[in-house]
């Protein structure tokens, strides 16, 4: 229940600006603090506070409608995975003869169908969230974000960029009409801080790709190649026709897995290239912003640079959207889903 006189939760841009003000205050305090102090605050304590405030800022900027839609999608995937597993267990419990008529199996099947419908709605919700954020996506790009490895990082980064664009638009509205150097410098100090935050998020995504996603794909590649060599050895020695046919089917499946791994590797290569461009752009704009923060004198100069920063966020959004890597056939698509630990409704599988 919301009490009639309860204080409304401020919008995200207001929260971000207030948090930026706290960061600016701690930075100003840090300049006057001693390097080390046995009792009381010193620069190290202020640095710890700044790190905590930066984490809070990143969480605030990433937690928007896009991230919420992504989280609903992942929750729907988990629910469908659980429903399918429960239905499979019940079918095993009642046996093949009774599986088609057992009431508990029928109820489980209905739960699975409802979970599939919920996942379809969650996919639609993610598409609607991107449309509301003015981030145009093709169906193939949406599928790449929703179902391929590293998609959650992409959505988090795009969500952060979209949030920053909204905050910068709010700052532009809040600028005074008159030429006020102090006010302009204060607001531009916020712009510098937001660009610094964006750079941290971008570099964190790069680190996750290099330290988590790429090694995981490399491990899967090594495992599959080892299995492929073992299969080839067994197939060469096998004389029984049925067993040899099974080994040949295994070899074909391993070939599909290697194709999917190659697609995932290419996806991460492209992502690192695009992120390198985005990071370079942010670093360059941040350097100019810091310089301008020191020299800005009139509101008009600030407003013009804020418009330039808004263009930067639009360009960074486009750089964060994945390139479409084509693949042929449902087997490859299914293997990519396994690589990313994703599930899709059966009607989506049939439509692909």
Record keyword descriptors for this entry.
11 helices, elongated, coiled coil, 2 domains, 352 residues, mainly alpha
Task: Describe this structure as you would to a colleague.
This protein has 352 residues and is an all-alpha fold. The protein has two domains: 45 residues; 218 residues, no CATH class. Helix content is 81%, strand content 0%. The protein contains eleven helices and no strands. Helix 7 packs antiparallel against helix 8.
Quick structural summary:
With 352 residues, this protein is mostly helical. It contains eleven helices and no strands. The protein folds into two domains: 12-34 and 41-62; 134-351, no CATH class.
Topology:
Elements: H1 12-32, H2 43-62, H3 65-94, H4 103-132, H5 139-147, H6 151-174, H7 181-237, H8 241-295, H9 299-320, H10 330-340, H11 346-351
